[in-house]
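Hey L., structure's done. Input below.
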Amino acid sequence: MRRIRRYSSASCVRIRSSRRRASTWRCFAARRRKRCCLPTISRRCRRPILGDGIRQGYISEDDRKAHLEAWSQPGAFTGGLNYYRAAKLGPGGGGHEAFETRHPVVSFEVKMPALVIWGEKDPYLLTGNLNGLEQYVPKLTLERIPDATHWVVHEMPARCERADSRFFGDVRIIEFDFWRGAQPMKKTSKQPAKNSSGRPGAIPAVPIEAVFSFLRGTKGTSSWTKQDFAGTLKISVADAAKILPVIQMQGYIHPYHDEWVTTTAGEDVSGARPPRFSPEKVEEALGELRERIKAVNQNSKSPYKITEAVAFGDFLLQKARVQPAEVGIRLEPRKAKRGESPATQHAAERAFLRQLRQKAATVNTLPYAEWMSARTHRRLL
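Output:
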């Protein structure tokens, strides 16, 4: 706490005391000295998020375990802090200018309709942040909840759901469960596609990772069509036509005549890279990886057996230059280790996948997920 207060008073000296207290977390999280701040923030998170939530009943014991397991994964907390470091939003001081003096309003204007749900008792983001928000979001719908805090979605889920229903007209968006991961896509059949929700106009469920995998593949492409989107994700064109406007709302794509263009934001969020490899190099690397997978499965001393290997990426599109192929690999331990924490298991699996990849720059090995087999792919087993 002493280090936090010292940093707050040095970096947020130009703000009123109430705003300075509210900005303490944000200022401290944005520090670049990861080694000193990471353990402290990790400990400080548990009390306001978990302790208060359990006492007030909106966080269950299962939720607590899920939080701690997620935070214990390698790089999980660092990734969260990097959001604050990269955003560069907040009060002035500490060697940098305030947000409003560095960026004109027009560069951050949100042209799509937007819903903001705000807990007025939020100790970190005070209601003063709402002042002038309509300058940035002309089509703003604001839902202020007097008795809610920073964790408004957990505290008052029914109230938030009603606000969502009014705003979206009771239409589902791309479904993604941030606690359990992406839900499997349903493969399309030759029969006419039925709406997954049974309601006219409802948007079908597609894992967000599958959408991002498509956006990655459009890097270096001037434009693409809804037929391209539907063909890659193996959904109907009608479903693609419903999903694409939702992605547009996020600012990841925008229309171009009868086609679509992936924006810089879409390339960034999906992790797209410049296509600099020849398809032959990628095919060669996949062939070598296939042989290593066979060797692993034939080696009884290997700690894992590989039960699924699925390759996907823009190398399937017959482009002149492509990005590294992505390969989802499912590992099955040959011998179960008792007492090993999930974090240790994840770290061991990641290390094994890196070893399996070796130093190939044209292939990325990833933990397998069901959506990888639902989109266009090539099996290596």
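Residues 279-379 form one domain. Residues 175 and 205 are 5 Å apart (CA to CA).

-- N.
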